[in-house]
Amino acid sequence: MLTPFTGSGAIDWPALDSLTDWYIEAGVAGLFAVCLSSEMYHLTGDERLAVARRVISRSAGRVPVVATGTFGGPVGSQAEMVQQIADTGVAAVVVIVNQLGAVEEPDSTWQSRAETLMAATGEVPLGLYECPIPYKRLLTPELLGWAAASGRFVFHKDTSCMMEPIRAKLRAVNGTAFRWLNANCPTLLESLRAGGDGYCGIAANFMPDLYVWMCAIFHTQPELATRLQHFLSIADAVVRYQYPASAKHFLTQAGVFTSAHCRIANPDFAEEELLILRDLQEAVKEWRRTLRGAR
Length: 295
Description:
By secondary structure, the chain is α/β, with parallel strands linked by helices.
């Protein structure tokens, strides 16, 4: 999820309510609040908790909500934040993979810290996210298989972005209740066909309903799914430009937001860039008509 801000930089709570409704009305299976797209590193600890509570309240049980609970420091301190996030009522607390090990530390150290975190947080359901900031740490298939077998980790947001490691990870969790979600658009369709469980990426902040459709139709309408994948892959280049400001401008054009303000950065979009976002709006509308007609 994004976090809407007013022009002064304060959290826009009514806009967050409207955004929550917008995602749910698009058919999403769940909401990931307090994530990188939410500008989580630019929220205070109290704001992270408040955002999670607000989204849970607004969603009112319509879909499950998860939120990040690890923001660096000793494992004990991270465990305390995990518990605080859990107490908001989320379905699972997301563990940022890079927060349990420095870039030079081996997987054995990472696993040891994960075990300590698990022991310190009781029965709190946990998720995993290969967040690229402050650095990108990818889990090996072996570590992901271990996490799935533990029974404590219930899903994973993957940023491998290549099919060979994706297939290896899917094989590692096959036969478990663990859910694997792709954060990468260009590999989405192939990952679904390889056994992936869905999409959890930034483009869902532009056109969540198209990704809902992809996950629903890929196995029953393969030719249409392939055509849709071609569009989504090309659109992904627009999505990534100056993100998350691009998403906020897109939603302002669509009438979902009233302000495109970010805490991370507020780039000045040239007229031609705003026209590209407008044209993406029109292309998305065309695809919506196509998919409605394909029911």
